[in-house]
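Journal club prep — side note

Before the paper discussion, L.F. wants everyone to see what a predicted structure for a comparable chain looks like in C-alpha cell form. Sequence:
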Amino acid sequence: MLEEWLSEPNFASISGQLEELYMTHSRKDMNETLTDILLSACVTPAMMPDRLLMEHVFLVSILHYTVGLEVGAHFLEAVVKKFDEVHRSGSEGKVCNNLIALLAHLYNFHVVHSVLIFEILKILLDSFTEKDIEIILFLLKNVGFSLRKDDALALKELISEAQKKAGMNKELVDQSRVRFMLETMLALKNNDMRKIPGYDPEPVERLRKLQRSMLHNNGGGKEAQLHVTFENILNADQTGRWWIVGSSWSGTPMISNADSISQLKLPGGKVSSKILELARKQRMNTDIRRTIFCVMMTSEDFLEAFENLLRLGLKDHQEREIVHVLIDCCLQEKTFNAFYAILGDKFCNYDRRFQMTFQFSMWDKFRELENLSDTAFSNLGDLLAHLLKKKSLSLSVFKVIEFSELDKPKVRLLRHILRKLLMETGPEELAAIFGRISGIPKLGLLCEGLKLFISHFLLKNSHGSSEEVSLLKEQANVAEKALQAKDSKLKL
C-alpha cells in the first residue's frame, strides 16, 4: 500500500515512478486510481495522523507541478465534493475533519488558492454547529497565518463575522470551544503565534523546503495554484472545468447565446459571430481555447498570430493551451496546413517550455493513434516531421515508444515521419537531426530502435523508382552513421 512506504526519504523516487506511469498510461485512469488510493488511505471515520495526511498531499503537490495541473485538480474536486456531501449530511465521526485537513494541506503546498479556503470557512460559519466550530479551529490553527499573509483583509472580515455570530448567542460565548476559537482568531489578527497552543509550523515548513528543492527546475511557482471557487467545483459537470488547461469537458454549453458570444474580445477587437460559431464546432469549449482559436483564425500570417497570442498575456499553465489548440486545429484540417507547423516552430524557438508542451502533447497523441482519422493521422505525421526537421523537437520525442512492441498505427506513423525526414532533408541537416540523440546513455535503446526500424520497415521492400530507393538507402546510411558517431567517440 502507498501509505506503508510513503515517507520523506522516498518522495523523490516515488514521485519519479509515478511520473513514469503517467507517461505510459492514460492520465484519466492514473488520476482516478491515484485519487481512489489516497482517499481510501486518508478519509476514514477515525481521525488520521496529520503527518500521514500531510505527506500524501505533498505527493499530490509534486505531481501537480511535474505532471500537470489536472492531477491536483482531479484530487481537489474529489475532496471538495466528498466534503460537501459529508458536511450536508451532518454525519458523525472524523471523516469531515480528515477531508478538511487534506484541503488545508492542498493550500499549504500551493495546489489551491486561498479563495477556496476562505469560502469553506464562510460555509462553516453560516451553519456554525459544534462540529463546524471544531473544524474552523482546526483550519485556523493549520493555515490561519498563511491566510493572513495571503489576504489579511479577508481574514479580518471573517473574524468580525465570527465574533458577531458568537455574540448573537450568549450560550455559545460561554462554551469553552467557542471562546478558544475567538482567542485563536484574536491571536491571528495580532499575528501572535505564541497565543495558539500546540501551533507548530515546522513540519509543513520542512516539507515546503523539500518541495522547493524537488521543483527547483520547474517553472510553475504559485502560478500553478488553482484559483477556483467552491461553487465552480460543485458545478463542474454542468459548467466545465475551466481551471484545468486542456481539460475534457461535458455538459451544457458554457456560452449559450449570441449576446454573450459577441463579448469575446481579442487584441485587435471583437470577432465575428461566424468565427465564434466555427470555434464552437471545433469544440473550443473554454474562454481561453476560444480566444486562442479566434486569434489563429483571424491572423494574416503566422507572425501576426504569434505576436497576438503573446499579447494575450496568458500565464504559464494557460500558455500550454496554445499548443493544444494548435495541434487540434492542425489535425482537423482537410489537408496539411503548414501554417500550424511554422507557428509551432516559432513558439518552440521562443521558449523551451513550448517544446516541452509539444513533446507531452505528442506523447498523448501516440496513445490515441488508433482513434485518429486518416486525415488527422497524416496531418499529425507532417506536423511532427516539420518540427523535427526544424530541430524544434528532438527525436527523443519517440523515447516513449516501445520498439519491441510496435502496433500497426505506430509503425505507420514512424514510417511516415522517418521517410519524410530521409527523403526531404539534406545529408548535413539529416546528420544533425539524428546526431542530437547519439551518445546519450538514456537514449541508447531509442537509437538502436530507430536503426532497426529504418532497416526493417523502410529499406526492406521499399517502393518507388530506382532513384528514390537509391536516395533512401544513402540517406538511411547517413542517419545510421549519425546515430553511431558519438557512441564511437565515447568508446575511444
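L.F.'s comment for the group: The radius of gyration is 27 Å. Keep this in mind when we get to the figures.
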